[in-house]
Amino acid sequence: MRRTYSIAILLILGIILVSGCSNKVESGNLYKAAMIMEGKMEDKPWNQKGYKGLLEIEKKLGVEIEVIEDVSTEAELSKAVSDLVDEGTNLIFGHSSNYGEAFYNLSQTYTDIHFVYFNGNYYRNNLTSMNFNSHGMGFFAGMIASSTTKTNEVGIIAAYQWQPEIEGFYEGVKYQNPQANVRMEFIYDWNDNEAALDAYDRLKNQGVDVIYPAGDAISEDIIKLAGDDGIYAIGFVSDQINVEPETVLTSTVQHVDRLYVLAAEKFNEGDLNGEIMTFDFADDYITMGEFSKSVPKYFQQRLVDYIEKYKETGLLPNQY
């Protein structure tokens, strides 16, 4: 289990040398923030963006931060949390929906610590779930896919059926092009690249010519394969147009790094309540990535207009 540390040294020296100085470390609630993840920071965009958010906490609030990688079992998680608490950490992020139940149990033992994780339904007074409402981003990805397909066969590869972007994708495809057929594949694991590649082959053999890999651990590999095969793709979680500029039509981007900063600032001010928080296009925590030249300008503008109306009304085009 690798541990990574980072300390705002200059700020700490300033506190020592300058008496009577007022700053957020002295007046706020946050002492040290930590991030626990299942893999490594460099593994995938989701992890990289989480770490980016943690670094921004260090920069903005001037507090110590720490990352613990490769934490997957309950025993590993319990030890990681125990060690962090012993070191004075009072805000702990679990960078996965898989930490929800374990955090719920741990939060009842460590009542002075606030736990934060993502895309789950567990919460209590010191446990917050920060969720992306990804139905809308799936809808707009579906619109782009069905406007681009020549075979009227589009596909999505996802980990689990409960992902909101799946239903959104289907609705967006059918809204834009009722004749388009939606092929779906599920791999039942966020990180199983081998299963994702097999799913990709099945979709390709079914004539799919636009694909949406709805899992950040698998998306880059699928996009590269699609580029080799002349199939269009839509990026996921990060703006992935630079992976294959001729392949990626656009991306659905989740700004999880901004949620880290939001949670830390709220906690520091005493305003982070244990609850389920939901974020969408209206909050600018979900956005579309850069469009490729393969998406006509008129359709890009049409999509932007739909998104602006969605931000204002909360209604997708099929709900007007």
Structure overview:
Belongs to the BMP lipoprotein family. It holds the Pfam family Bmp. Keywords: Cell membrane, Lipoprotein, Membrane, Signal. The protein is of the alpha/beta class. It has eleven helices and 13 strands. The protein folds into two domains: 3-132 and 256-281, Rossmann fold (3-Layer(aba) Sandwich); 135-254 and 290-319, Rossmann fold (3-Layer(aba) Sandwich), CATH 3.40.50.2300. Strands 1-3-2-4-5-6-12 form a seven-stranded mixed β-sheet, sandwiched between helices. The longest helix is centred in the N-terminal third of the chain and has 17 residues, at 45-61. It is globular, with a radius of gyration of 21 Å. The termini are far apart. Mean pLDDT is 91; it is low at 7-27.
How is the secondary structure organized here?
Layout: E1 3-6, H1 9-17, H2 24-27, E2 32-36, H3 45-61, E3 64-68, H4 74-86, E4 91-94, H5 100-109, E5 114-118, E6 127-132, H6 135-148, E7 153-158, H7 164-176, E8 181-186, H8 193-205, E9 210-214, H9 216-229, E10 232-237, E11 248-254, H10 256-268, E12 276-279, E13 286-288, H11 297-313
Parallel strand pairs: 2-3, 2-4, 4-5, 5-6, 6-12, 7-8, 7-9, 9-10, 10-11
Antiparallel strand pairs: 1-3, 11-13
